[in-house]
Amino acid sequence: MCKIWLTLNPKSEAGFELLAIVKKLHRIETRNQWGYWVVELIAWNEKHKAFIAEKSFNSETGRFWYKHKMVRRSFVVIKRALPDMFHYLDNPRIPKSTNGLESFFGHLKSHLAIHRGLTKNHFKGYIQWYLWLKNQK
């Protein structure tokens, strides 16, 4: 999610460095690598704390807003998700990413689009049958 807000070519040094850190996420295989990654993220935060805290002020409205909201938003998303991001390291049955789920629900969504006139009751039944049939494979 945060890669969307950082863009492919961030304009700021902070955005560029955060994107490089985010790109390393999928290569984390061990708790040791996780530790190094978290240390790198903390170092990034310390280095760019003032940058992501910069605010602009509109004297007409009296409102403040963050200048670098996309970089800040990306960091806050990572920071809040950090406790739940690495469960796959402890349990090999948990996948690294949600790509499989997104694919599954994407197929379900395209199947439902074909049958868009279903009543709520038929809609529930369709999903139940779809899930049951998918689990038979």
Write a concise keyword list for the protein shown above:
two-stranded antiparallel sheet, mainly alpha, 2 domains, 6 helices, 137 residues
How is this structure best described in words?
By secondary structure, the protein is mainly alpha-helical. It folds into two domains: about 1-90, no CATH class; about 100-135, no CATH class. Helix content is about 60%, strand content about 5%. It contains six helices and two strands. A two-stranded antiparallel ribbon has the order 1-2. The longest helix is centred in the first third of the chain and has 23 residues, at about 30-55. The model has no long low-confidence stretch (mean pLDDT about 90).
* Order of strands across the main sheet: 1-2
Order of helices and strands: HHHEEHHH
> How far is it from the N-terminal to the C-terminal residue, by CA?
31 Å
- SS elements, strand count: 2
Structural class: mainly alpha
Count of discrete structural domains: 2
Shape: flat
> DSSP helix count?
6
Largest sheet: 2 strands, antiparallel
Radius of gyration: 21 Å
The stretches of 5 or more residues where confidence is low (pLDDT under 50) are none
Mean pLDDT: 89
The helix content is: 55-70%
- Our estimate of the beta-strand percent is 5-15%
Oligomer class: single chain
